[in-house]
Design goal:
Number of helices: 21
CATH architecture of the largest domain: Alpha-Beta Barrel
Largest sheet: 8 strands, parallel
CATH class of the largest domain: Alpha Beta
Number of domains: 3
Radius of gyration: 26 Å
Strand content: 15-25%
Strand order of the largest sheet: 9-6-5-4-3-2-1-10
Helix content: 25-40%
CATH superfamily of the largest domain: Glycoside hydrolase, family 3, N-terminal domain
Structural class: alpha/beta
């Protein structure tokens, strides 16, 4: 690094107009694919084109090397570009969708995938990725559920830190590392009705206890950038929310990195109704703390006027520019503007065998077995298989973010992965796309008849169904969480053949699978599994790997239950009966709670848990300095009572029975993935600290209140295996 004095000297040499350009991010490509920004034609203003600080979505070693060289030659102070793009869950080698990675419950694995993605992106000239998305999500109707790791703050925090560490390693200046931008700050996952871009209303109690922890985990892991959310938070758009960005983020959380707006978010302040003019939008965003304006150019067009009029200060501009240039210095770009970009290294790293093997492992670990009636899985070596359904031979295994840089043609299909079993194949029905992008297809009735005929020739049916990739994404909110009707009809017809039906569901969100589960002998959720998805799923189906995935979100019985999440507050009229009750919490005509709870997942063996054991049943409130010192230990004995080896995710939940404010019915506070052979037992212990018991009370901060608590240890969030303990004294 050249250091702060170098940056200060550089800023002192820049004009205000050059500083405004440095704070502007341009699209990196013209519609015809030609370079832009540095080559005339994108922006009518050549000065901005030559002096912009960063490019969005522009990558590929050959193009980056050329663009950076031209830019340095044309810019007044030889300041290099920052190249930023969406490396969400892979670059060329695409790993399972982020929600799928959340289903692994394996932060170490996710850190590995992020490191692999960073390497592939770095050699293509990428410096910054807009990941991780740390948004807590409780409503499966929201399309961007697919980018989240789920509904739990603790689990999301572990994954946010893992992504950040994987991308950045020991430092962003190191080879094959890129800077991480955590998003979307804050509350984006709580948009009303699950409608993208909609309003968010959160109390401080909710914000600090649920929505902030994943972000603080990413920041504590060293995340270099942060992106504000599109939405309003309590009436103020996050992009112009000074209490949120300046007071909370900068001063409260001591974040010193770069804040970059989401795409066109600054100009969207006008339709938000928070200001009437572009200069007003620019002033509010900069005053809030936004350093880089993505795509639009309100900063560039208005900063000179705003400084002249005294509406913003030169000090505010210089602070923003300093943060941007400091990031470039941290990346080592002043010393080597080209960093890792290399056409030769692209050939070595992109889709290399090691990354494909990792993607295959991730796809297998992400798969969640929801049902396995009469042990129909795994498939036997002599089983004759009918592979039916629109995903049986499809390469649409990448979600929208995977397609930013990945290629469907690189994907391994399920039919290819199962070729040793010589399956009889039939599409069964077309893959419905709400954007009507599909070509014409034969009648589903004809295809169903063909599928039934194929099934009649075989012992077992593997039925590959699911959402179209376009149905789970930004602007992909849904009111109906069922599979398309033609797929349900296909499943009904196949069930009537009497053959065991193994249903595989591809999706980017929790779906309402009640009828699917009822009509299937086995049910497997595989998300959008990525480049090696076919192989990873086949490893589970054939028993080469035992399923170990667990749900990172609750699966509803119907969309009408949403938002649905396990860690809700108790009600004065709880329903613990398991069926509808009048004058109790729930809905008419439907069982309470989810179809499959948070943390749920089966494997090819059976585990039993002993009752929870505590090393002590009471403890005194510790000093603040002893927050991480164990108060006592909670343990269970786990036994594999089946006839196959398997991996169990042992989960620890805590309930604060009574507090100043109502507390959730339970909260995940730890877990262990444990692999046991048949008849093998192990004692699994968790240290319990005071930091696991405290919570945020507005006006008081983080507080541990004395009283009764319950420890739950089991296979999912609805376990009833618990024991009480007491915290005494004044805390």
């Amino acid at each position: 690094m050249l250091g702060r004095q170098y940056i200060t000297n550089l800023i002192n040499q820049m004009t205000l107009r050059e500083k405004a350009a440095e704070m502007t991010q341009l699209w990196g490509e013209n519609p015809d694919g030609t370079l832009m920004g540095i080559l005339r034609g994108f922006h009518s203003n050549e000065h901005l084109a030559a002096n912009a600080g960063s490019l969005l979505g522009f990558n590929g070693a050959e193009r980056v090397l050329k663009a950076q060289r031209i830019h340095i030659e044309e810019s007044a102070h030889k300041i290099p570009f920052l190249f930023m793009t969406d490396v969400i869950h892979g670059y060329k080698t695409i790993f399972p969708s982020v929600l799928g990675l959340g289903a692994t419950w394996n932060p170490s694995l996710v850190e590995e995938t992020a490191a692999a993605a960073a390497g592939e992106a770095a050699v293509s000239g990428v410096h910054v990725t807009f990941s991780p998305m740390a948004d807590l999500v409780k409503d499966a109707r929201w399309g961007r559920v697919i980018e989240s790791t789920g509904e739990d703050p603790y689990l999301n925090g572990l994954f946010a830190a893992a992504f950040t560490k994987g991308y950045q390693g020991e430092g962003v200046d190191k080879p094959l590392k890129i800077a991480s931008c955590v998003k979307h700050f804050a509350g984006y996952g709580a948009v009303e009705g699950g409608r993208d871009y909609d309003s968010v209303w959160l109390s401080d109690y909710q914000l600090y206890n649920e929505y902030l922890p994943p972000f603080t985990a990413a920041l504590n892991a060293g995340c270099e950038l942060l992106m504000p959310a599109f939405n309003t938070l309590n009436g103020i758009p996050c992009t112009a929310n000074r209490p949120l960005l300046h007071d909370l983020l900068r001063q409260g959380l001591n974040f010193e990195g770069v804040i970059v707006s989401d795409c066109t978010a600054i100009c969207e302040l006008l339709p938000h109704g928070i200001c009437e003019t572009p200069d007003g939008a620019a002033a509010m965003s900069l005053d809030a703390g936004v350093d880089i304006e993505m795509v639009s150019s309100f900063y560039y067009e208005n900063l000179e006027k705003l400084v002249k009029d005294g509406r913003i200060s030169m000090e505010q501009v210089d602070e923003a520019v300093e943060r941007i240039l400091t990031l470039k210095d941290k990346l080592g770009l002043f010393e080597n503007p080209y960093k890792d970009a290399s056409v030769e290294k692209e050939r070595e790293l992109h889709l290399c065998p090691a990354h494909r093997a990792l993607a295959r492992k991730a796809a297998a670990e992400a798969a969640v077995l929801l049902k396995n009636e009469k042990n129909v899985l795994p498939i036997g070596k002599t089983d004759r298989i009918a592979l039916i359904g629109p995903y049986g031979d499809s390469r649409k295994l990448l979600d929208i973010w995977g397609l930013v840089n990945g290629n469907e043609e690189d994907c391994v299909t399920l039919s290819e992965a199962l070729s040793d079993y010589a399956p009889v194949t039939a599409p069964g029905c077309h893959l419905w796309n709400f954007r009507n992008l599909d070509e014409d297809h034969p009648s589903d009735d004809v295809w169903i008849k063909e599928a039934v005929a194929a099934a009649s020739q075989c012992d077992k049916v593997v039925l590959a169904l699911g959402e179209h990739p376009d149905m789970s994404a930004e602007a992909g909110s849904r009111t109906d969480l069922a599979l398309p009707a033609n797929q349900l009809s296909l499943l009904k017809a196949l069930k009537e053949t009497g053959k065991p039906v193994i249903t595989i569901v591809f999706s980017g969100r929790p779906l309402a699978l009640g009828s699917v589960a009822a009509d299937s002998s086995a049910l497997l959720a595989v998300w959008f599994p990525g480049t090696e998805g076919g192989n990873g799923i086949a490893d589970i189906l054939t028993g080469r790997c035992a399923p170990s995935g667990r749900l990172p979100m609750s699966f509803p019985r119907t969309a009408g239950q949403e938002p649905l999440y396990y860690n809700h507050l108790p009600t004065g009229r709880p329903n613990n009966s398991g069926h509808y009750e009048a004058f109790a919490n729930g809905y008419i005509g439907i069982e309470p709670g989810p179809l499959y709870p948070f943390g749920y997942g089966l494997t090819y063996t059976r585990f039993t848990y002993s009752p929870v054991s505590l090393s002590a049943c009471e403890a005194s409130c510790p000093n603040v300095s002893e927050k991480e010192t164990p108060l006592f230990t909670a343990s269970v004995t786990l036994t594999n009572e089946g006839d196959a080896a398997g991996t169990e995710t042992v989960q620890l939940y805590i309930q604060d029975v009574a507090g100043t404010l109502s507390r959730p019915v339970r909260m995940l506070k730890g877990f262990r993935k444990v692999t046991l052979n048949p008849a093998e037992s192990a004692t699994i212990s968790f240290p319990v600290t005071s930091s696991m018991l405290e919570y945020y009370i507005p006006g008081r901060g983080m507080v541990l209140e004395p009283g009764t608590f319950r420890i739950y240890i089991g296979p999912h969030a609805q376990t009833d295996n618990c024991k009480e303990f007491l915290i005494k004294g004044g805390c």
